[in-house]
Design a protein that fits this description.
The structure holds two protein chains of two kinds. By secondary structure, chain A is an alpha/beta fold. Helix content of chain A is 36%, strand content 17%. By secondary structure, chain B is mainly alpha-helical. The longest helix of chain B is centred in the first third of the chain and has 23 residues, at 42-64. The N and C termini of chain B lie far apart (60 Å). Classes of the chains: A alpha/beta, B mainly alpha.
Chain lengths: 276, 279
């Protein structure tokens, strides 16, 4: 991806690889949540055809990323020729390694945590030699242990590390929803000018939560409109990605959603969109 | 308490149902837990913990019971249905994500759902019981902690606690990939005794391979107290292929010579066996 090109893509879902490969120039890039399976018959074609983005298979930035994880990330980034690498703003494994919630979950937003994220991200970027982007993660329940707002945590992290912001619009909608904030006001607090990649997806109702949460489904028109509103405020954005990675995804969903994103954000396929 | 430690308390509360239940009753006995719980929306944290637990087991049931899922149209018993039953809801406060004992409880529910009153189903799918046992051991092996030392103070490589042997009446290996493709007639398996070795690698990958008598005997002799070469010699095994076999077994996690750790939970099936030393 060159600096003026804004690509539109999706996540690589191996069970839909044949369909993905048949979509012509609709899809510019594929985010890789998992390494390719050794028996994946389509990966060689996928790798040849698309820009691949290493996404969330690195390590949590709350702690130093261990050497074997750095090496794994470096190897995958080389395999993918990934223009940047992405990790979540999350802390999901205890320091003793005994407990892993095996799901995205954000850190407590404190000065101490911020210092840890900055130090560990700096070391990671130096070791990998590629730009890092970090995706914000919503929190379902109120936590009074925070010292600073999420937006300030993110802004100071990006400014200190030079990393880019991966804004997930569904995550933003959920965070605003569960904090009781108007979503545009919430988004306005975030460092949108530092966004490198935009994730677009849907949300779904979960009975355990009694409300909406992250889901690998198509975005509603409301979420697409919100994506477009945020997109207009992102001068550095280089990629927009339909964030759905699941074996429950049915054929047709990815091409239809990428087409909807292109139409709503006015990024035609096969041509370079004007940078906002 | 610093904020990284406070984060750990939140993670433990989310992942550990019994700890969370005790904490919500004010009975955790841990001042750190009480400190954190007083500063969060506790009922919402409880809901999120339940959500995470259901999600955690759904991911694993979908992955490890994929053959039963593929046969759901034939059997009418989709395994993931268990995760929405009152039985699983009642189990939620007792479950610790990633813990072997919890995995056993979930597996017991799955086996009840898949195997009880299944005589008609066994006529339709003769190898149904073996298929459920195969998937169940995959599910359990994933839950075994890979950083458990084989033998304290072991001087030699030893069989890993995560290495398990399964004896089946049906040879499932050829039929498994066929179950995941569209079929008009149920793929048939050959009825012949089959022994499989399940192993979990340091990277968390669960592998399955055929296990010969020689390989079984070798593994059973590897207590960590004896040189594997001596075990092989005693069993009359081919010394030339022993080193290669040991390397492969160590890669797969069936044999360990030192501790390891992984947070990965990916699983796969390896059809090609580690070359077992011949007699």
């Amino acid at each position: 991806m060159d600096s003026k090109f804004i690509g539109v893509g999706a996540f690589y879902n191996p069970h839909l690889a044949a369909e993905t490969l048949s979509t012509g120039d609709l899809i510019d890039h594929l985010a890789m949540a998992d390494p390719p399976h050794k028996d994946d018959p389509h990966f060689a074609s996928i790798r040849q055809r698309y820009t691949l983005l290493l996404h969330d298979y690195i390590g949590q930035l709350a702690d130093p990323v261990p050497p074997h994880a750095v090496e794994r990330a470096r190897s995958l980034a080389e395999l993918y020729r990934s223009p940047w690498i992405a990790e979540h703003c999350q802390c999901v494994i205890t320091q003793d390694g005994r407990c892993n919630v095996d799901y995205v979950f954000p850190p407590i937003y404190t000065r101490e945590m911020l210092a840890r994220y900055i130090a560990n991200a700096g070391a990671l970027q130096q070791a990998i030699g590629r730009p890092l982007v970090m995706e914000q993660i919503p929190r379902y329940f109120r936590c009074d242990l925070d010292e600073i707002p999420e937006a300030q945590f993110l802004r100071e992290f990006f400014e200190a590390t030079g990393a880019g912001f991966l804004l997930d619009i569904a995550h933003a909608w959920l965070e605003a929803h569960y904090r009781g904030r108007e979503v545009h006001a919430y988004l306005s607090d975030l460092p949108l000018e530092l966004v490198t990649e935009l994730h677009v997806a849907g949300v779904s109702h979960y009975s355990d939560l009694g409300g909406p949460w992250i889901a690998p489904i198509e975005p509603t028109d409301e979420l697409l409109d919100l994506s477009a509103w945020a997109f207009e405020r992102m001068p550095r954005v280089r990629g927009v990605t339909f964030d759905a990675f699941s074996t429950i995804l049915k054929p047709g969903v990815i091409p239809r959603t990428v087409e909807r994103i292109r139409q709503r954000l006015q990024i035609p396929a096969g041509r370079r969109a004007a940078t906002p | 308490m610093n904020s990284r430690d406070a984060q750990d308390v939140i993670l433990r509360l989310l992942a550990d149902g019994p700890l969370r239940s005790a904490a919500l009753r004010g009975q955790s006995g841990d001042p750190g837990v009480a400190f954190v719980l007083a500063r969060v929306d506790a009922p919402a944290l409880d809901r999120f913990g339940r959500f995470l637990c259901r999600h955690y087991y759904r991911e694993r049931v979908v992955h490890f019971f994929k053959y039963s899922r593929a046969l759901a149209a034939v059997t009418g018993r989709a395994p993931e249905v268990v995760l929405k039953t009152p039985g699983f809801n009642a189990l939620l406060p007792q479950l610790v994500m990633g813990e072997l004992a919890s995995a056993r409880k979930v597996l017991a529910l799955l086996e009840t759902h898949l195997l009880n009153n299944a005589d008609t189903l066994r006529v339709a799918v003769p190898y149904w019981d073996d298929l459920v046992r195969y998937q169940g051991l995959f599910f359990l092996t994933d839950a075994l902690s890979p950083d458990t030392p084989a033998v304290d103070g072991a001087r030699f490589p030893a069989r890993a606690p995560t290495a398990a042997i399964l004896e089946l009446a049906w040879d499932l290996s050829p039929v498994l990939p066929l179950l995941l493709k569209p079929f008009e007639r149920l793929p048939e398996a050959a009825r012949r005794p089959t022994r499989l070795l399940f192993a979990r690698s340091a990277e968390g990958e669960v592998s399955v391979l055929r296990c010969t008598d020689a390989l079984r005997d070798l593994l059973e002799g590897m207590t960590g107290e004896q040189d594997p070469a001596e075990v092989a010699r005693r069993l009359g095994l081919d010394a030339a292929s022993l080193e290669k076999t040991m390397q492969r077994l160590e890669q797969l996690g069936a044999v360990i010579s030192q501790g390891s750790f992984s947070a990965s939970h990916r699983g796969s099936e390896v059809s090609a066996a580690a070359a077992p030393p011949g007699r």
